[in-house]
Design goal:
By secondary structure, the protein is mainly β. The protein folds into two domains: about 1-45 and about 65-90 and about 95-285, Thrombin, subunit H (Beta Barrel), CATH 2.40.10.120; about 290-395, PDZ domain (Pdz3 Domain), CATH 2.30.42.10. It is about 15% helix and about 40% strand. The longest helix is centred in the last third of the chain and has 14 residues, at about 270-285.
Length: about 400
């Protein structure tokens, strides 16, 4: 799949506003949440294969209408209100304060577990000092409860919260679907709290799959789902639901030049979120496999200009000392070459395959490594000068800071 970069400004949908503004705006039923610049891009096909895929009928005879989905699932969707400690620079030095953020979430267990986005309950790596969730009741009735942060993973932009089931209204967990089976053109709905308008439903279709999304810490979230269902600030953490009423994604960000919805919404795939949720529930954190290289995508034109003996792959710019890659003998570059204002570090290995699967981009390399667990052994094929070398690498655990 050809890689396409979007130059639109992408706004993450759950940023803090001041506590004073929060109180004032709640009186009018509007609660804006701020914005963050992110990058959304289309990923390259992980398999590297081409051909025609038979597409099954995405709309089955028992498909639910948006109204039926809302009736079925809205009780399991919640508002998430986070209190964040802030420090600003005043005339006489740092000034401590608090701000609040609004997002969405949804119940995934009758034990009180709730899925949402990491950026709804954290900012710049700092977890919220307090979180509460609001359940929808009959009519305009709501129930507000304190929630505990079970774990936050900024790499996937997923967080898990928990409320006391004994204090909560009857919990109505949403059913998790299969995001790998999402098909372009199939109908979906989003339920959340856009711009503070609580428990709103919007509908649309899956516009694209296999999008690369950028997480709050700059990591790549693979296999993102693009939708034209209206997504706005405040929808963060809410469910993207297919026509069977199952969750296939967590609404996470929009691409916009105006700050509002332009038919470009994106969701973290539920397959990724479910795997992360499992680790967060058990350990409060997520362990990712780690290779330990910094690389640059090599296209055929770049390979030709640099005199490489391959047409594509990942040029290893540097190898972190003591990393799995360093222990296996993978080599980084030594010289800088500028091509059309892009600096490449040459002289190092070019990674062309992982376990026999062709690697055509740095994003794909990251996806392949992340699909493994720490301790797994992988076969890395590299081109070194004019020769090809195969190395066995035992993957480590990605450090928090590297």
């Amino acid at each position: 799949m050809k890689q396409v970069r979007s130059h639109a400004i992408v706004f993450v949908l759950g940023i803090a506003v001041t506590a004073l503004a929060l109180v004032a705006l709640m009186a009018f039923g509007v609660l804006p949440v701020g914005q963050k610049t992110t990058v959304v891009e289309q990923s390259q096909a992980a398999t590297g294969t081409t051909g025609t895929t038979e597409i099954s009928n995405a709309i089955s005879s028992d498909a639910l209408t948006p109204a039926q989905i809302y009736q079925k699932d809205s009780a399991g969707v919640v508002e998430v209100v986070s209190t964040l400690d802030t420090t600003t620079q005043g005339v006489f030095g740092p000034v401590s304060g608090q701000s609040q953020a609004l997002g969405s979430g949804f119940v995934v267990s009758d034990k009180g577990y709730i899925l949402t986005n990491a950026h709804v309950v954290s900012s710049n790596g700092q977890a919220a000092s307090a979180v509460s969730v609001v359940f929808k009741g009959k009519g305009s009735q709501t129930t507000r409860l304190a929630a505990k942060i079970v774990g936050i993973d900024e790499t996937s932009d997923v967080a898990v919260l928990k409320v006391d089931p004994a204090k909560a209204p009857a919990l109505d967990p949403l059913t998790l679907g299969n995001s790998a089976g999402a098909q372009v053109g199939e109908p979906v709905v989003a339920i959340g709290n856009p711009l503070g308008f609580d428990f709103s439903l919007t509908s649309g279709i899956v516009s694209a799959t296999d999008r690369n999304l950028q997480s709050p810490n700059g990591s790549t979230i693979s296999n993102g789902i693009q939708t034209d269902a209206a997504i706005n600030e405040g929808n963060s953490g809410g469910p993207l639901i297919d026509s069977s009423g199952k969750v296939i994604g967590i609404n996470e960000q929009i691409a916009s030049q105006s700050g509002g919805n332009q038919g470009l919404g994106f969701a973290v795939p539920i397959d990724t979120a479910a795997a992360v949720m499992s680790q967060l529930e058990k350990n409060g954190k997520v362990a990712y496999a780690w290779l330990g290289v910094s690389g640059q995508t090599v296209s055929p034109d770049v390979a030709k200009a640099l005199g490489l003996k391959v047409s594509d792959g990942v040029l290893v710019a540097s190898v972190q000392s003591g990393s799995p890659a360093a222990k296996a003998g993978i080599r980084g570059g030594q010289r800088q070459v500028t091509l059309q204002d892009q600096v490449y570090v040459t002289g190092g290995d070019v990674i062309t395959r992982i376990d026999g699967q062709a690697v055509t981009s740095n994003e794909q390399l990251s996806t392949l490594i992340t699909s493994h667990k720490p301790g797994d052994q992988v076969t890395v094929t590299v081109t070194r000068g004019s020769s090809t070398t195969t190395l066995k690498v035992t993957l480590g655990t990605r450090p928090t800071v590297f």
